[in-house]
Amino acid sequence: MENIRLNVPLLRRRVPNLTSAARSVGLRPATVSNLSTGKTPIGRAEVRTLVALATLAECSLDELIIRGERVEMIETKIKTLDLFAPLEKGGTVGLVARPGMGQLVVLTELFHRMRNDGYVSVLLKPKGDYPGVDDLVDFADVVVKSIDEAYEELVATGKNKDIVFAADRSHVLTGKVYELHERLENVGITNVTTFLLDLKGEVVDEDLPFGPLETLWHFDADLSARHKYPAVNPLYSTSSVLEGAHADQNHFTIQQRAQKVLRRYYELRSLVNVKGIDKLPASELPTYKRGERLEAYLTQPFYVAENFTGIKGESVDLQETLADVRKILDGATDTREIQELTNIGSL
């Protein structure tokens, strides 16, 4: 099957306020979001949906749909991110979280890890006083105060280095971030991977919080409250890397199996919290236990938090993560204690 997907960068540039625009032509924002990340393949989209998007972007269907392009993944060696919603190199990732869920810690850790992989991190410093921003500033290679300053730095650095760039949602609302992307493309700079933050926690309940994105990371209040870090929800986080004909089928299959077990585990966990584990049907107990172990395994100590946790940071290659998750799903760890799987690297 031909590898086709939505031209997300074009859509971002042409329709900055996509949520309102989509509703104005009768499209659900969630539909547009799923097409953007690839959760809904283009081949399953209704013709009227694609025509409506092309009309909004004032482009042809040939311009709206990209054919034959490969998607390159950035391996972070953070298990839950690489497994469920991996980064697309040169794409844009939105972080959806309320304050205190750990999004700044995750981004600080990524700055640290990606520097070791040769990336240069550029931070457009957010306005206002937010806990954790100072730590992020300390780990950024370059800190800028305006979009224009960011443009100059990205152009100068992007000629020789791959870049990760982070900005707050306030610059999305003004359309400045997408104007920046267009300016960079016009001068041939396409190796910038962008992270968009929502430091005020205003977009948690929105269907399309940042407009069309290649990757979306939803942080989870329950995981955060139970100190299951990184608290990224494995069911609602999405990525274009795992969708379409270009996707690695082994990765996709294991991800789907893991999501199925975790989805049922979360349902059963609600029952256990109310009635106790003794009330679970015997047939559901293996799923519950494996979901519990998988959730524990997906926690991971970070290098940037070593001084606070006293636990050495861990990195796990994607292939090792996939092999470990398969073992958990197949029951190879059924006799191991939950604590043995919590805050570790690989099995």
UniProtKB/TrEMBL annotation:
> Is this entry keyworded ATP-binding?
yes
Q: Which residues form a coiled coil?
A: none
Which superkingdom? Bacteria
Checking PROSITE patterns in the record gives: ATPASE_ALPHA_BETA
Sorted keywords for this record are: ATP synthesis, ATP-binding, CF(1), Ion transport, Membrane, Nucleotide-binding, Translocase, Transport
For this protein, the record's SUPFAM superfamilies field holds: C-terminal domain of alpha and beta subunits of F1 ATP synthase, P-loop containing nucleoside triphosphate hydrolases
Q: Localized where?
A: Membrane
Membrane among keywords: yes
PANTHER family, per database record: ATP SYNTHASE, ATP SYNTHASE SUBUNIT BETA, MITOCHONDRIAL
In the record, the note on similarity to other proteins reads: Belongs to the ATPase alpha/beta chains family.
Please identify the protein, giving its name as recorded: Uncharacterized protein
Organism for this UniProt entry: Virgibacillus tibetensis
